[in-house]
Amino acid sequence: MSDHNTLVCDWITLPDHLKEGLDLVFVGLNPSLYSAEVGHYFANPRNRFWPAFNLSKLVERHVTADEDATLLDDGIGFTDVVKRPTPMGSGLRAADFRKWAPVLKDKILQNAPKLVCFHGLIAYKAYLQYGEGVKEKPELGLQGRMICSSSVFVVPNPSPANAKYSLNDLAEWYGRLREAKKSDPD
User: Fold this and answer.
1) Which of 114, 120, 177 is nearest to 147 (CA)?
2) pTM of the shown model
3) CA–CA separation, 19 and 12 (whole Å)
4) Which residue would you say has higher pLDDT here, 184 or 112?
5) Which residues pair with residue 29 across a beta bridge?
6) CATH of 12-183, one of 3.40.470.10, 3.30.70.270, 3.10.20.90, 3.40.50.2300
């Protein structure tokens, strides 16, 4: 077990990479088993997050999963709606969202990032329902609803299971996120 992993109950999960006042926090649905085992976000080589992230130029350097924690120095953090790892998001239960979505809300309120980016509509809808008590049908992009002082943006989930979006599509969405991040007032 890597010392970067966090033991919760009888399973290992990813640590949050959070601190107060970040420019951007990425929120995944939940960690994959592989990512939890190796201790890095979007670590599965088939996941398209890092290639799309690098194509979008959200930061000026090339970044790999092994360097996820270093993005804190660039004002970018990571967490999840649910911290329990599963082979696929379909392995999550309503009880997981009831338990973890309010925890996520507290983390966002405590750290007050300028922009929160949810990976996928499923992640955002689950957060809204179980963290805010709201049922909505949001669309991708900048949301009208904020989480306290944090703006919210939703991008497609970069999981290989979400084949509807190509690598270039994902990079374009991260480019839109980059523009929203630039236009967000300080």
Assistant:
1) 114
2) 0.90
3) 21
4) 112
5) none
6) 3.40.470.10
